[in-house]
Specification:
The chain has about 110 residues and is an alpha+beta fold. It has one domain. It is about 30% helix and about 20% strand.
Length: about 110
């Protein structure tokens, strides 16, 4: 099922939503920089994949006209494969961090 999302939508933001209590554990974020010359076939917009409390996965893809939520297994699996391929093209963590620092100093 695909549909547009709004801030606080329980399907993709879960119970935490944008107004999550400060006592909630903070999740870590990993950033992986992909070199400009790499081709990420099939990736047309930023997306994220989250594992829900029940173990299922849901994906959200950001587009200019809103967020698309993908919660059907074939769609989520396709995005997981795209993410795995992108990670295979990504710079090592040390190089990514160094480049991000360089960019922030510019």
């Amino acid at each position: 099922m695909r549909r547009s999302c709004s801030p606080g939508c329980p399907s993709c933001h879960g119970e935490r939503g944008p107004s999550a209590p400060a006592s909630d554990p903070v999740r870590s974020v990993r950033v992986h920089m992909v070199p400009r010359e790499s081709i990420l076939a099939g990736v047309t917009s930023p997306f994220q994949i989250d594992k829900l409390r029940d173990g299922s996965r849901v994906a959200a893809s950001e587009h200019t006209d809103g967020t698309i939520v993908v919660n059907e297994s074939p769609g989520v699996q396709r995005l997981r494969e795209l993410a795995r391929n992108a990670l295979g093209s990504a710079l090592p963590v040390d190089d990514t961090l160094r480049r991000l620092k360089e960019i922030s100093d510019e």
